[in-house]
């Protein structure tokens, strides 16, 4: 489902995954001291436009992914209204005996929008980055030890197999007349065989990797090389531009 | 018992597989968590928090070497991102701090004790670390102090029960199947059995 976007030949897909991830972290850290609603709102708008225009993601699909986030964001608004640190003075209206003040709604919206900004930037990364390119970039640019990188990649490639295995376990349980009850109590019945299978597969994979000469040493050659390119420079420039614009536009409110 | 303290490839791959499975479970849990948080507020979300500390504790209990808890949580976070978490950025930061929290407790016991109380403490340290991170990331300073303290309380409880006791229970159930005989947990188990048999 995500592959069709991750493999598109658009601007964001060509940017180095490590740089993109770095940008996500920078955005998150920049948002920490912001408590007005306009800055995150503006940033969220810009991000959505970037994902659609530069990443080629359809608006409907993006909206669908952000939908659960809206609920999460809304929780910040109501909890801020009901349990604020200090209640504001400008009363908008009252629900029962509960006064709803402008200040609290605005802080709540700000925190909710902040969660949405985090979500949208995460989507910007996830929707435009192929997992294997991400891992190779971590190994080649961020100096992640290849043992960990390839170990993770192997585990990632096995995930679809686990889904089949889960189905198999369920069928096996049904044949033995254990029924198809679902719930927290039944978790162990699936978890233990699944994990036992995963550990056996992992041991075999490790033996296979070692027998093929993979010793996890650093000075190795790569079939796919991830290079820095001009798109990375454009992206870094765009990010700087975005941050300074938002900084200037929203500074009158951030007092 | 003398053993090498650096991780070998077999342990790394096993750790990656376990954490990857947890990473997928975490994703399902995030979805649940967001629903619960949306309805009950961050307090309800606090009760779910312990689940996210299970991968580091399960892996640390199995492999019993320095760094395992931290790397396991980072791998789980990495898997979440590769599978397509809608929360990639915060997941990565949280993965790091949660893993670090659990790791510190194991380091405090010099990676020698992996008994239930230590695991519970590690679980609580993990949720405490994730509380501090979320406090900064999502601006909890703007909420009433009572709510925030209550949230910390539910998160610690969740760390104690879900992350500590839950991981202990599941890992020892897994040990009984015999797949862990080649790992530290299986070795130490056999050793205690032999000692008991000798005396």
TrEMBL record, chain A:
<dbReference type="GO" id="GO:0006824">
    <property type="term" value="P:cobalt ion transport"/>
</dbReference>
<dbReference type="GO" id="GO:0043190">
    <property type="term" value="C:ATP-binding cassette (ABC) transporter complex"/>
</dbReference>
<feature type="transmembrane region" description="Helical">
    <location>
        <begin position="108"/>
        <end position="127"/>
    </location>
</feature>
<dbReference type="InterPro" id="IPR052770">
    <property type="entry name" value="Cobalt_transport_CbiQ"/>
</dbReference>
<keyword id="KW-1133">Transmembrane helix</keyword>
<dbReference type="InterPro" id="IPR003339">
    <property type="entry name" value="ABC/ECF_trnsptr_transmembrane"/>
</dbReference>
<dbReference type="Pfam" id="PF02361">
    <property type="entry name" value="CbiQ"/>
</dbReference>
<feature type="transmembrane region" description="Helical">
    <location>
        <begin position="41"/>
        <end position="57"/>
    </location>
</feature>
<feature type="transmembrane region" description="Helical">
    <location>
        <begin position="64"/>
        <end position="83"/>
    </location>
</feature>
<keyword id="KW-0472">Membrane</keyword>
<keyword id="KW-0812">Transmembrane</keyword>
<feature type="transmembrane region" description="Helical">
    <location>
        <begin position="18"/>
        <end position="35"/>
    </location>
</feature>
<protein>
    <submittedName>
        <fullName>Energy-coupling factor transport system permease protein</fullName>
    </submittedName>
</protein>
<feature type="transmembrane region" description="Helical">
    <location>
        <begin position="233"/>
        <end position="250"/>
    </location>
</feature>
From TrEMBL, chain B:
<protein>
    <submittedName>
        <fullName>Energy-coupling factor transport system substrate-specific component</fullName>
    </submittedName>
</protein>
<keyword id="KW-0472">Membrane</keyword>
<feature type="transmembrane region" description="Helical">
    <location>
        <begin position="68"/>
        <end position="86"/>
    </location>
</feature>
<feature type="transmembrane region" description="Helical">
    <location>
        <begin position="38"/>
        <end position="63"/>
    </location>
</feature>
<keyword id="KW-0812">Transmembrane</keyword>
<feature type="transmembrane region" description="Helical">
    <location>
        <begin position="12"/>
        <end position="32"/>
    </location>
</feature>
<dbReference type="InterPro" id="IPR017195">
    <property type="entry name" value="ABC_thiamin-permease_prd"/>
</dbReference>
<feature type="transmembrane region" description="Helical">
    <location>
        <begin position="118"/>
        <end position="140"/>
    </location>
</feature>
<feature type="transmembrane region" description="Helical">
    <location>
        <begin position="146"/>
        <end position="166"/>
    </location>
</feature>
<keyword id="KW-1133">Transmembrane helix</keyword>
<dbReference type="Pfam" id="PF09819">
    <property type="entry name" value="ABC_cobalt"/>
</dbReference>
